[in-house]
User: Fold Cobalt transport protein CbiM from Aneurinibacillus danicus.
Amino acid sequence: MKNKRMLSGIGAVVGLVLYFVSNEPQTVYAMHIMEGFLPVKWALFWWAVFLPFFLLGLRSLTKLTKERPETKLLLGLVGAFAFVLSALKIPSVTGSSSHPTGTGLGAALFGPLVMTVLGTLVLLFQALLLAHGGLTTLGANAFSMAVVGPVVAYFVYRAMDRSTGKPRLAIFTAAALADMTTYLVTSIQLALAFPAASGGIAASFMKFAGIFAVTQVPLAISEGLLTVLVWNFLVTYNGRELAQLQSIKRGV
Assistant:
């Protein structure tokens, strides 16, 4: 029965994917750094930084699915959730766009390394199917959204859950901060690649970060609230599985 409910939840998420893809607003470029936008040296640099995390994530994911094969449906759900949210393009300013990331939920449930793999697959499919992001810039996009964002979400969730005993508040904060951190890192990446003629990297960072702050702050709050709703659904229909995952992460 629980598997049927989980499958229906995944079906609903997939339906949302199809809806938002077909009704996606057109913009000049998305916050995922687009194909060919980064200089070659920076594209290679971020690939080199990202790959070790991805390889560690593959090992962690393989171990998880072997030891707990019943988590595969839940993994599919959090992956689909990240795909839906990060596929949305919300018009920002100067011809750009912002979007949620959806990585906080998976990071809180499975840890940052597993979410690194899922987030990277999300970015890869978006680059190939939606022209959202790119292959040469996949390393940079994955480092910001699939590495740093999940790491922040995981440790914020654990710290707040232990200190406050309020998991919903913890998951809200973790999801919102994962979103904001992703965009701060992306702004740093762009600033490093394109320092301003006057003011250098710092001035360039303020420019890029300011562009997305207008839409990203309310988006982060909205993502946190939506993640709490999904969390409530999982607690209602998959409470035992969630409790087991939490026990594993605490070393019980």
Notes: The CA atoms of residues 122 and 206 lie 28 Å apart. The longest strand covers residues 90-91.
